[in-house]
């Protein structure tokens, strides 16, 4: 979800008295390190000493997490809610004490959020006193406010105006909780004393036994609330962002954002990023042929890590584009990260990229799940080819070489990629050629507005010994093409390649900046990646089958005999996006005729 929707940050909750501290900190750290998404870690002071909180803060800082939502926490067990003058039971009585402690111990290192209550906190004496306490939290060091959820947008708008009149000028993010079921909705609004407009109950009551209908209405209500806040002028309480409470049920938020045009839905072979949301604006179910794309604010074509030590990293090899977690793991001990140019992958400053101990195998689920995705009993190569094609078509969610679904830019050549795979060229990485596309393009754009981006056509695939000559012949006859190939035994083949080094595959030209080259191809790095790529046939596919079975022999044969092939089309000017696919398919057709 983070790759597709590109949130500004995600929340990671905190258990009572730090009961989930290890898991919560790990999730927040992994989100930043491997997903490139900032995490806002909730931290409560209920039942905790200052020494315990100080220890937690040291751990949080050591894991690279820099954002904290400072809260008093839930009321003690057996107590339904906080009452007037209640304190946390720890050495920090209230959230303001926690904020002060964080600033005292770590200065400005952390960005701190605090909670706001548009309809009043149960323990507050008066609205004026509550606003005074909120202002004191901001003055103590909180940077912004996230509100309790609500279902009346006017209540939030009025709350913001009251905050402004009281001298609270920081950002205030509205909390929106999509309705998932009638029972949970009524239970939570009652528990938190949230008012519900009459029109909402009139819509929900007739369908309260139908969970899907309730979710549909819930999405529509959330859309209306968000749109009203986002379109209201700032001086009237409007905001330029919203905070969704997903409760780990992100499907509704996905639908809401698609219907709000916060993400573009791109259909296969649509290369202009046209919005495919239903005309009436109702939230739609996402089909395998639709890819949601967050409005383009990408810093680079790849998702950078949100860790401070990698903030200057601006160059990566293309090979791990679909396994970014593996790349981050293999490079997390580097003293420096490529900045401005790739340089020598063997440089001691970059550490040992080739260290096999860093190989990362994400989970494809249980053995039953993997068999369902990769095939319970593949007997002939075409069975394997079809699995790769189904991944491209969105019918298989993952491959061992691909952690996520197909990238949006590859959707522009989806049908061609599917044909390529069914023809026996098993693609695990690709990008279409583009020539001077605006940097704010919803599909290809990156780097911010005002620039133009370029990229060479690239395809990386496994090819059989019978198919490799087809590719070699094609490359030998076209000056714009380069080919690099290696097999499981380490036998290397190159065609159309002059002796040289690194090739820029993606670059951008922006006002008042040097040319950026964030994606490259390095022949030596390709060989390191190939070791990992071939190992995945064994660790994530071959081992599914009995040793003496035909399926085992088939996957073993592919691993041992096929070549991993990388093809670069240096002619990004005269070719259209899918022309490299077309060239390979045409070469295959001609080879059959001869």
How would you characterize this protein structure?
There is one protein chain. The chain has 594 residues and is α/β, with parallel strands linked by helices. It is built from 19 helices and 19 strands. It has helices spanning 2-5, 21-34, 50-62, 95-106, 127-140, 153-165, 182-191, 198-204, 211-231, 251-259, 324-331, 367-374, 381-392, 408-411, 414-422, 468-476, 523-540, 550-561, 579-593, and strands at 10-12, 39-44, 67-71, 111-116, 144-149, 172-176, 243-244, 263-267, 290-294, 316-317, 426-431, 434-438, 452-455, 457-463, 481-487, 492-495, 503-509, 516-521, 563-569. A seven-stranded parallel β-sheet has the order 1-2-3-4-5-6-7. It has a five-stranded mixed β-sheet with strand order 10-18-17-13-12. Helix 17 (523-540) runs antiparallel to helix 18. Residues 269-291 and 345-351 have low confidence and may be disordered.
Key features?
594 residues, alpha/beta, seven-stranded parallel β-sheet, five-stranded mixed β-sheet, 19 strands, 16% strand, elongated
């Amino acid at each position: 979800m983070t790759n597709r929707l590109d949130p500004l940050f995600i929340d990671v909750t905190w258990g009572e008295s730090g009961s989930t501290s290890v898991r919560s900190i790990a999730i927040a750290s992994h989100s930043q390190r491997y997903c490139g998404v900032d995490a806002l870690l909730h931290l409560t002071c209920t039942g905790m000493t200052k020494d315990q909180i100080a220890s937690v803060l040291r751990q949080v800082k050591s894991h690279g997490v820099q954002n904290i939502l400072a809260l008093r926490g839930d009321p003690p067990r057996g107590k339904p809610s906080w009452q007037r003058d209640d304190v946390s039971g720890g050495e920090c009585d209230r959230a303001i004490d926690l904020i002060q402690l964080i600033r005292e111990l770590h200065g400005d290192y952390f960005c701190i959020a605090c909670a706001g209550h548009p309809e009043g906190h149960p323990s507050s004496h008066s609205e004026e006193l509550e606003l005074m306490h909120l202002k004191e939290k901001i003055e103590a060091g909180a940077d912004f406010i996230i509100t309790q959820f609500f279902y009346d947008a006017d209540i939030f708008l009025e709350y913001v105006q009251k905050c402004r009149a009281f001298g609270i000028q920081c950002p205030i993010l509205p909390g929106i909780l999509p309705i998932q079921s009638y029972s949970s909705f009524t239970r939570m609004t009652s528990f938190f004393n949230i008012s519900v407009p009459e029109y909402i109950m009139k819509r929900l009551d007739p369908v309260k036994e139908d969970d899907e209908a309730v979710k549909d209405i819930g999405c529509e209500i959330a859309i209306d609330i968000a749109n009203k806040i986002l379109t209201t002028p700032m001086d009237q309480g409007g905001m330029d962002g919203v905070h969704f409470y997903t409760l780990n049920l992100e499907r509704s938020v996905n639908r809401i954002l698609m219907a709000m045009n916060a993400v573009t839905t791109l259909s296969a072979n649509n290369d202009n990023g046209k919005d495919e949301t239903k005309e009436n604006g109702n939230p739609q179910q996402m089909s395998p042929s639709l890819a949601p794309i967050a409005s383009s604010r990408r810093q680079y074509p790849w998702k950078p890590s949100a860790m401070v030590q990698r903030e200057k990293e601006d160059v990566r090899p293309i090979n791990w584009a679909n396994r970014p977690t593996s790349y981050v793991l293999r490079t997390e001990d580097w003293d420096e990260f490529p900045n401005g140019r790739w340089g020598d992958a063997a440089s001691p400053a970059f550490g040992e990229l080739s260290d096999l101990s860093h190989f990362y195998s994400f989970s494809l689920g249980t053995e039953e799940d993997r068999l369902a995705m990769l095939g319970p009993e593949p007997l002939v190569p075409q069975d394997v080819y079809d699995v790769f094609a189904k991944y491209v078509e969105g019918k298989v969610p993952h491959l061992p070489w691909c952690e996520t679904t197909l990238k949006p830019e590859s959707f522009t050549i989806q049908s061609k990629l599917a044909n390529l795979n069914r023809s026996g060229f098993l693609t695990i990485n690709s990008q279409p050629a583009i020539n001077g596309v605006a940097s704010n393009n919803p599909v290809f754009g990156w780097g911010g507005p005002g620039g133009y981006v370029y990229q060479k056509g690239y395809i990386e695939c496994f090819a059989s010994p019978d198919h490799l000559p087809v590719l070699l012949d094609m490359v030998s006859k076209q000056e714009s093409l380069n080919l690099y190939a290696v097999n499981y035994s380490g036998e290397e083949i190159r065609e159309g390649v002059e002796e040289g080094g690194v090739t820029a595959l993606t670059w951008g030209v922006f006002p008042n900046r040097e040319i950026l080259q964030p994606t490259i191809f390095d022949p030596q790095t390709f060989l390191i990646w190939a070791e990992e790529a071939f190992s995945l046939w064994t660790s994530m596919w071959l081992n599914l089958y009995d040793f003496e079975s035909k399926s085992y022999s088939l996957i073993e044969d592919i691993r041992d005999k096929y070549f991993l092939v990388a093809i670069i089309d240096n002619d990004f000017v005269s070719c259209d996006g899918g022309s490299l696919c077309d060239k390979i398919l045409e070469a295959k057709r001609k080879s059959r005729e001869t």
